[in-house]
Design goal:
The protein contains 3 helices and 5 strands. The protein has 130 residues and is an alpha+beta fold. Strand 2 and strand 3 form a beta hairpin. Helix 2 runs antiparallel to helix 3. InterPro entries: Anti-sigma-factor_SerPK (IPR050267), HATPase_C_sf (IPR036890), HATPase_dom (IPR003594).
């Protein structure tokens, strides 16, 4: 009898939607990157913090953070999901605004990013790092 091959487990962190979520997500990312031998985690920590902060401030329900390496190109991918109905978009530049620049900054730092809807009303905001 042969064993059925299994897909590797995707490192996942489920967080309560509190102001502690971004800090915990940054620590989770740093631990995952260290385990993979990725020494420069600055952009990853910035991205996971922005996405988790947006989920906390604008989303609903628990926040789920998943971090994995894309099987096609080996680039790290960060996914943050919640049950909020909002759709994150990069806001037009407004020099007078005191917030709202996070997604714009993130979009300039990552290889690509997007939003996808899941069954059950969840949405996932994802970013692939360079």
């Amino acid at each position: 009898m042969s064993a059925t091959p299994r897909a590797p487990e995707v490192p996942t962190l489920v967080l309560e939607s509190t102001d502690q979520a971004p800090r915990l997500a940054r620590r989770f990312l740093a631990e995952q990157f260290a385990g993979w031998g990725i020494t420069d985690d600055y952009t990853g920590r910035l991205v996971v913090c922005e996405l988790t902060t947006n989920a906390y401030r604008h989303g609903e329900g628990p926040i789920v953070v998943r971090i994995f390496l894309d099987p096609d190109d080996g680039r790290p991918v960060i996914e943050v999901s919640d049950t909020g109905t909002g759709h994150p978009t990069v806001q037009p530049q407004n020099d007078a605004a005191t917030s709202g620049r996070g997604l714009q900054l993130m979009a300039e730092l990552v290889h690509e990013w997007g939003v996808k809807r899941l069954a059950g009303g969840r949405k996932v905001v994802w970013a692939k790092l360079p």
